[in-house]
UniProtKB/TrEMBL annotation:
Organism superkingdom: Archaea
Molecular function GO terms recorded: iron ion binding; iron-sulfur cluster binding
Annotated Gene3D superfamilies: Fe-S cluster assembly (FSCA)
Protein name, per record: Fe-S cluster biogenesis protein NfuA, 4Fe-4S-binding domain
Organism of this sequence: Haloferax larsenii
GO BP: any one term: iron-sulfur cluster assembly
Length: 104
């Protein structure tokens, strides 16, 4: 890892990762944002908004985000994502966790 990469925060590195790996989100009128990061538990909460809400391929985009992000970042163990509804916890529960106290 370069010294420049190690100087950036996890949030900055995730944002760069999303822009670099998923330009089609923005090209198709959607946007992706980080809602919260809990570095202690290795969890990240992502929202896909705009045209992503209701898009038929957004579940595939979410799965790709999850697998690639966990593979690329040693600090991340779980990615929770939503397209405007409840967060997908990977277990099909559709519950929305309370992230109000998660450091960001």
């Amino acid at each position: 890892m370069s010294s420049q990469a190690s100087e950036k925060s996890l949030e900055e590195r995730i944002e760069l990762f999303m822009r670099r790996n998923f330009p089609q989100i923005q090209m198709h009128g959607g946007s992706a944002g980080i809602d919260a990061i809990d570095e202690d538990t290795g969890e990240v909460w992502i929202s896909l908004t705009g045209a992503c809400s209701g898009c038929g391929i957004s579940p595939m985009t979410i799965q790709a985000l999850k697998s690639r992000m966990v593979a690329e970042f040693d600090e991340i163990d779980a990615v929770h994502a939503t397209t405007g509804g409840s967060y997908d916890d990977g277990q099909g529960s559709g519950v929305e966790p309370d992230i109000s106290d998660v450091p960001f």
